[in-house]
Amino acid sequence: MSRILTFIIITFLYHTTLSAAHIVGGDVTYKCIESNPITKTTKFTVTFTIYRDANSGGAFFDNNAAFGVFQRSMNDNNWSHKETIRSSPINIETVPYDDKCVIVPPNIRVEKANYIFDVVLPWSTNVFQITYQRCCRNATINNLENPDQTGAAFSVEIFGNTIENCNNSPVFNKFPPILICNQKALNFNHSASDSEGDKLQYEFCAPLHAGGTDGATTPGNATSCTGVTPLPINCLPPFAEVVYSAGYSASNPMGGSPQISIDPTTGIITGTPNLLGQFVVGVCVKEFKNGVQIGSIRRDFQFNVVNCQGISETRNLTICTGDSINVNGTTYNKAGTYTQVYQTTSGCDSTININIKELKKSESQLYYKLCDDASTVVNGLSYSVTGVYTQVLTNKLGCDSTLTITIEKFNKTQSNLSISLCDDETGIVNGIVYDQAGNYSQTLVNANGCDSILNIYVQKGRSSFTEKSFSLCDQNPIIINGKSYDQAGQYYETYSMLSGCDSILSIKVLPCDQNILYDLEKCDALVPANSMVYDEFVPAYKKTLDCGQIIASNIYRDNPQVNKHSCTQGFNNSVAMCVGASPACDYAQASATPIVFKFTILPDDGNYIQFNHLIFQQKAPLKYSWIAGATGPNNFPTKYGIKIFKNNVEIYRKTEVSTNNDWTKEKYDFFDNEAFATSDSVVFRVEMTPYCQVGNGATESVWDIDDVTLHFSCHPAENRLISGEIMNPIAELGNTVIRRKHENTLVSAQISSNGTFMLPNNKVDKAYILEGFNNENTIYGLTTLDLVLTQRHILGLEPFSNPLQYLAADVNNDRKITASDLVQMRKSLLGIDTHFKNNTSWLFLDETSVANETNPWLMNRYIHIPKGTNNVDGLRFIPVKVGDVDRASHAKINVQK
What we know:
12-stranded mixed beta sheet; mainly beta; 8-stranded antiparallel beta sheet
């Protein structure tokens, strides 16, 4: 039973294969019969003319063929099925061809048939389409892709604006010739006639494709949209256009040059076919009334281009200089265009156009660059010396061919490069790092392709950097090495040392501006109660800073109810403050409460503020004299001391300072003391204490003070800190270093066990490039699964979904995923290679770049640090193990955009 079933299936498939490919072409027209204003409908007679290849062994014209009637709105391309009409063929006949100069091939015989039926359409604004769908076309068609699998849809559109007016479609006047001659001018009038005299417009257009081979050469339902006889209710417009083979198109259906064309006004097809074959051609005719399109018809047909008797022939011939050629008994020995005319036995004129091109002696050149003792062989001859040589050969046409060979010899070259390294700098030359003094060499390839020896001389030294600070309060102008400085600022003098490193003298000239002044002019002790408060001793801000702010307190004494003050004549006839002194001569045992003032320094980001000078006038008078008060001998203090606190921590103490009996200017310099410089907010407290009375027996012991001034200066931060981390650190990343590059210098820092790194002492006026580097543990994470994933991606079976997979799979670092990457993976797995040849074991990507870039090749493998005064922290590198495609496929890019 199974054998019989198999036989039946095979027989059926064979039959339907023959039944599939037979369609040559066709067209559709319609004629209005009558309009019914009562029912508001119009009856049309529709005529389908179908052409088939009678010798193809394909199916006969379909009996009871299904014709679909579809409709859509004028502004919508969504069609709906209205009805299906059945019809059978009539008027079956063979299409004749009577050109006596054409030899009709025995395999070409075309039959045509008509399907004629009536259809009633309602008056509306819709567009109606009547279509017949059938598969398939001849397998011998040259200008279509898979023609034996390409069906046809023959259709006509009736616009709603013509139905009520009982319009008739244009009708083609005649069918194009089945056979046309190669190399013979074609002039076929493919025009149509319109009974209403409407305007017609012609153009080449693509025939429509419908149906398929289901139910014929492939299993399936023959009435489906991909079947050989689709049912209209299953298959709605619009229908696809046929797919032309390369070199052909709807507007150039026959190829060749020049191509055939159709006149858009007359419909005349002209041109000279020059390619043999079978070509499907489509012609569309649009119908216009008063400038508005009211309909269109489409015809597709086949042009069979064959060689004919008695047609023109062109022969393009070549001869070498001095030779001759014979054509039909006529000898030609010169280049030119010649014509031979004769008549065939059948009476067809024949013309041979002969184009003779004279071939001159051909010439070619070879050029070789040879290094040192190298030689080259050309056609069995060896050349090793600079010169120009000639060989005379014979080309494939038999003409002389002169080959000129130019030999140019070059020698290897040498060049020298000196690098001076200072401090922790390293030199980079062609990717090789040098960090020690010495003589090195590299062998490269010069512009001539020969060896280029680069001698590298590395000199290592230490740079010298000296800083000196000067105040205009001490000298103005300041003279250093013969140069004069009278303006505050930072100056540099650079000297070159024998090692090539710079010796830099940093000169800091500090201003002598009073930033804060306690002039004490408002001293008020006339009322006894006022001597127990210090509200009048407020600071005067004489000059503000442009890098921050100073906020100062009043000058006061602790416990003012006990530690009172008085007012006395001050410096330069001003008013001063007068306070009591301690009898003890040991500063540590001094019982007098000190004069105190505080100030808070608030620097701006990227700057620090230096407390440079404390200047004041002091006097231990022989006689005290209080304004509007008593006067008398003074048991004056012989010493005073100063203590300064920074955030409540003592940072300075000066004792045993002698007092004077007359006003004396006291100046204390702090500009060389780092404790008095800050880039953070700090609070300073200054205490001044008089002590060690002279012991003259007087009852009063007082010390006078006036014009207390504070001097500050602004400075930019000279160095900044760069820090960050490697994300997801593992033990295999332990040897990772972070490289900081600036021009030809490099500094490296090892990451810590938790993946963090820190680079101190980075110049604020330099931009840097940070890179991660690790070329160890090459085999880590690399398994056969990575090979499988990469291969499936290359074959298109399972493309990568994560951009990091591309970077992991690109082991040869050429920004492509190819079989070459698979080869290197296998060599590493087999232990043949211990390192990737053109790549490192790990890549380190800028986290920000990964967050904002989807193209893996554009993700930054570095972090750029621009110039700036602020510390740079929070930098993050994402490590990618080269070769570990599997782990990269599961990587989650959890970064903040």
